[in-house]
Amino acid sequence: MYFYLIIAAALVIDIATKIAIRMHLELGETTEILGGGFRLIHLVNTGSTGNLFHGWGRALAILVILLTGIALYMRRQGKLRGTYMQVCVALIIGGALGNAVDRIVYNHVTDFLFFSEAATMNFADIWVFTGLFLLVVRQLFLTFKPSSTQVKKM
Fold first, then answer.
1. Which listed residue (111, 112, 121, 128) is catalytic?
2. pTM for this one?
3. Are 15 and 101 in contact, with CB atoms under 8 Å apart?
4. Cα(41)–Cα(55) distance, rounded to whole angstroms?
5. Which one of 21, 40, 124, 125 is the catalytic residue?
6. I want to staple 36 with a disulfide (CB 3.0 to 4.6 A). Which of 17, 29, 32, 99 is the partner?
7. Would you say the C-alpha torsion 54, 31, 121, 9 has a positive or negative sign?
C-alpha cells in the first residue's frame, strides 16, 4: 500500500508546486524564499535532463508511461522485493509521472527550483534523482559489503 501512497504523494506535491509556480511567476521571473537563501525561477524544458531531446516532450511522456507499466508489472510479479527497493521505485515512478503529466498537458516541463545556472529542476526531478541515488547506494553497499566468511576471519 505504501508503494502507491508514495507515488500519489510525489505526484500531488509535484503537480501542486508546478501549478503554484505557473500561477504566481511569469515565465523567466525569479523570486527568493527562505529569507533570500533560495531562489525560485519559472522556466520550461521541452526535452529531458539538460534539455536533451528538445521538442520531444509528448514522446518522452509515452515512453515514461510504458516504462511505468513495465515497473508495475514487475512489482506484481514479485521482481521488486523489499521495502527499500519498492520505496526507490515508487519515488522514480512518482517523479517520472509528474513530469509526464506536464509533457502531455503542456508539451514541456515546468522547472523552478534554482540550484545553479546549470541546475534548475522541480520536485519530480528530485524524486527521480533520490530514487536512483538510493538504488546506486544500495548496489554499492551490496557490491562492496564484506562476505560473512571474511568478517569471521577478522
1. 111
2. 0.84
3. yes
4. 21
5. 125
6. 32
7. negative
